[in-house]
Structures are given as C-alpha cells and as structure tokens.
Amino acid sequence: MSDADRTDGPPAPIGRRGFLGVLGGAGLASLGLSGGTVRRVPAGALDVLVIGAGVFGAWTARALHRAGKRVALVDAFGPAHGAASSGGESRVTRCGYGDAELYSEWACRSMAEWRALSRRAAVPLFHELGVLWLHAPGDEFVEATVRVFSRHGFPFSLLGPAELRSRYPVLRVADDEAGFLGPRGGGLMARRAVQQLVLELESDGVPLLHGEVEPIRVASGEGGALPAVRTRDGRVISAGAFVAACGPWLDRVCPDAMTGRLSVTRQEVLFFAVDRAATGALPVWADLPFYGLPSLEGRGFKVADDTKGLVVDVSSIDRRPALEAEERVRAFLERRFPTLAGSRLNESRVCQYESSSSGDFVLDRHPGLENVWLAGCGSGHGFKHGPAVGAHVAGLVLGTAGPIPRFGLDAAGARRTVPDARAPRGRSASS
After folding, report:
1. What is the pLDDT at residue 22?
2. What are the CB-based long-range contacts (under 8 Å, 24+) for 254-260?
C-alpha cells in the first residue's frame, strides 16, 4: 500500500455478513430506512449535529468524529436515498479540472480515502477504469489540465486518433480528434459508498437520527448562535454547532442564507443493455455534453447529458424520463458509438444537480448564526470531493481551517463562468 493510500486508524472492516445486514431489515432500521426505532441523543450531549447524511455530511461527520468531537447525523429519509444527490448507482471520479487547481488537488486527495473505503467494503466501491476525455487538438481546458497534472506529478497520457482507435475500437474517432487519459480515475458506486461510510460511523459510535429538520432561522438564535434544531415531529436536538449539508434542500433548511443562491435542475441518465465485453477496455469517458461509464456490476452502459436541465422544485420534480432524452442520447451514440446505438434501453433515471450560480461549492459560515455552517451546491461535480470537503468543513467548525473565498456565500451569489464547464462533472444524482 502506497503512502497516498494510507489512512490512520480506519474503522473496523464491515464484512459480508455486515454488508448483507444493510440489505436486510436490521441494517435498514439502523439506516433509518425501515421505520425501526431510532437512536436518541440526550440534549446537550453533542458537540456538532450534521444535518444531511449524504456525501458531504457523512464525510464531515467522520472528520469531526476523528477529531474527538461528539457528533450525530440526522436525515429525513436515510443516507443516499432515492431522491438525494448522493443516491443513484455511480459517479465519475477524476482529477482533471483545467486550471481550477484546487479542485484537482481535492479530487486527488479524496481518491485515497475512496480507495481505502472501497478496500474495507464487502463489495468494491471504487472501480479504477481511468477517465478519457475526447477533444479537439489545442483544447484550452485539456492544455490547462496537462499543466496542472505535470506540476503535481499526476499521471496522464495524450492519445492521438490512431491510438484511440486501436485501444478502444468501440469508439468512432475522427482524424482531427484526440484523447486525454487520466489512468487513476474511474467510477464510484455512490449509494453503497455513502451507506458504507455511515454504517462505519454508526459502528464507531456516531448516531444516525431520523427526522426532517425544520427551517433554521436567524430569529431562532440566541446571542447570534443557534441553540437547537427542531424536527417536524417535534423533537428538539441541541448541539454546540451545526453543519447543514442538505443537498437540494439546503435553501429550504437554511432559507435566510441560501434563498436565491441555489438552483435545482432536472437531469436524465440512461443505461443500455451493453456488457463490458462489448466495450472492451473502454474507460469512463467524456465527449461533452455527454459522458458515461461502461457497465459496472451488470447495470449497463451508462450515458448522461451534462447540459443543465430545466430548473425545478425538488419537492415536486417529475422523475419520469422524457422520450426526447433517449432520442438525444441515441443520436449521440450513432455518432460516437455506432455499434451501440441500437442497444436496448435497460433503465433510465431522473436525478438533479443543485448548483450555485458560479458552479462552485458553498462551504461557509451562516451569515446570521455563528455556530452554523453550510456545505452544499455540489453543482454536478461534488461527489468525488466528499472526503476533502468533509475535512475542510470540519476544519471550519474546529477553527483549524480558514474560509476559501471561491466557496463563500458572496461568490455563490455572483454571476461568473462555471469553472467546470469543459469537464465531466460526474456528481449528479445518477452520474
């Protein structure tokens, strides 16, 4: 095991029996998914309550717990549930972000934690397939990524059209196209990864509470700090500090801070009946606005359109896929993967991006409550960064890290170019 893959003092592995427990009634009860008895934390017993058991919330809870703080998670439905941005089957994880160097650093740092989590799981969570971006020669985003990778010693390969055709015969490649391959990237099994992490936290003494937290208002503060939150069923949970990591519901839970700073868009993902034998050595790939993954765990060949969809209300989003989405994808397959264009559709899914106007995360203190922090706006590319986000937010809470301006509320409210516009985001609820 290399130094990059080390973690200090990981929780005890959860073996096959423990994993099967997640799928059975006892495991589901502990996750708050089956209506079983939930744990209750005595008032005043918590240093930090993390609201939201998705990827940002779970990794933040882990970092705080490892720092010796008394932590609990609370979620309305359970970790990585079907409507969460951490739900769904798979996510792209890669380090290429053009000249947005901080994102590259965080993604690569996070990859070591994802690998370690995968090794502890009964079934692998991380599939190191590499990530291939198809582009025109001289592409500015790819050239910036090459400079960042070279500076940090991240491995990569530049592939011409002949080599692309030789390595990946399933691709149709024009003579004026090229490829950038990041060999250490790949696909994360999203839902299982978050649930594995939360199970580890529970086994290590971090409770998972089931409840929908009522909106947090500045008016509820005492001396500029929030003493407690209340759930819809009337429970009161007090803590010294609070982290709101509520995905597409962040503006509902923290309206005074987030109203007008978050938009939710409807995104569609399709899986075709194509097995790995038909795609050969093809890695995770991006030919924007489309991106996808070869079949993982028999799910099928995944294709998603990264184009921002219609802005929707997350509480009433229509999750029935539109016929037009399949038509757009099949037209793309005809051009890039012609032998797959007629493949049977296995399944489709409607998920969402929750985005700031800048495309950056929001990792900041609540502007009216000094002991409340916000962690959200994954903006279609946040999942892979979960471990680094969790470490940074924990540092904000503990006072060991300072704010990063691009992740502040002021930046989230400003209109500027999305930093990730030329890269596969890989973090939608199904990507």
Report:
1. 29
2. 254/215, 254/216, 254/366, 254/372, 254/374, 255/215, 255/217, 256/216, 256/217, 256/218, 256/366, 256/367, 256/368, 257/366, 257/367, 257/368, 257/374, 257/409, 258/362, 258/374, 258/376, 260/413
Task: Give the amino acid at 13.
Answer: P
**How many whole angstroms separate alpha carbon 77 and alpha carbon 61?**
17
Q: Which residues of 165-196 are buried (b: 16+ CB within 10 A; e: fewer)?
A: eebbebbebeeebbbbbbebbbbbbbbbbbbb
pLDDT tens column, 216-250: 999 999 999 999 999 999 999 999 999 999 999 99
At residue 90, what are phi and psi to the nearest 5 degrees?
-140, 155
Measuring CA to CA, which residue among 43, 68, 54, 45 is closest to residue 397?
Answer: 68
Helix, strand, coil % over all residues of the chain, rounded to 5: 35, 25, 45
Rounded to whole angstroms, the Cα distance separating 177 from 166 reads 14
Residue among 53, 54, 183, 196 nearest 114 (CA): 196
Q: Which amino acid is at 160?
A: G
